[in-house]
Prior knowledge:
The structure holds 2 protein chains of 2 kinds. By secondary structure, chain A is an alpha+beta fold.
Amino acid sequence: MFSRDRLTNNITRIIRITLYLVVLCLLVLFGSYNNPTITLAMCDADPIKYDNAFLEIGNEITVKTIYPDSFIVHQNGKLYKVVGRSKNLIPNQFISLKANYHRDGWLELVDYHVSEKRRVKIWVSVLPVFIVLIIFFKQFRFSFKNFYFKRV
Amino acid sequence: MADLLTHFALGYATSRHRSFADMRAIYYLGIILPDVITRPIYILFPGLFNYTIAMHTPVFLVILCLFLAEFFQPQIRSLVFKYLFAGVIVHLLLDSIQRHFIGGYYWLFPFSWKTYEWGLYWADAPLRWIPLWVILIAGYELFIRLHRHNND
């Protein structure tokens, strides 16, 4: 009787885990395909469709070269020319951009913001992950027999 | 998003009550969870940024907390969910009071793409307060240990 209960519990647990996993995957896919934001990768894939499109780009975009009336930025292994005057930009700085895309592959600057000390922020964020993991594994141990964490 | 050390410091400050004693590690896990599941992906692989959009939303995170709680012993599963999700909520609240040059947080995802935030400070602003958080936490821990040592 006990083992039958346990089997039922395990089956319902597996069903719940599978269900949560499916919903999580569906949400990720929904977020990816329905996101209204236009990315540079989308523009590159279909430049005519996105000619003159307004872009807001802020993910891992760095300044490479600065000219008096333009600058070059790097994102995802590609370089893009941004036409517009900039103030106080330094090469390798992380920035966020608001710009209009042009079918020839260049951007017309609308506005920009310098993301200060982005790399410092990333490295500083690694420390608490280790602290939390140490605290967690002091309190919990994984049981491979039951496939769950138990209090120590 | 604020750096994880600032999030952790807030988690530390809000979990001093004795009711957190057994579940503090879980609460801390919730505090760092939204960034831990998204940041490494889009920093290492910027092209996958769109897949991480859903992962920093309340709907996704509540299901993720339910999913993770399944990997704890049945007796504490509901408690794990509560503390994990409480940490997530505190994380999202801290994020929502900051200011973004572009984008923001999709609180109503997948029902709406409207972003909501209070915009009180730039995301990189808390970095300069990190030494203060470290001193306060270290000082408090030292005080507690000395107090315990004197009582023993």
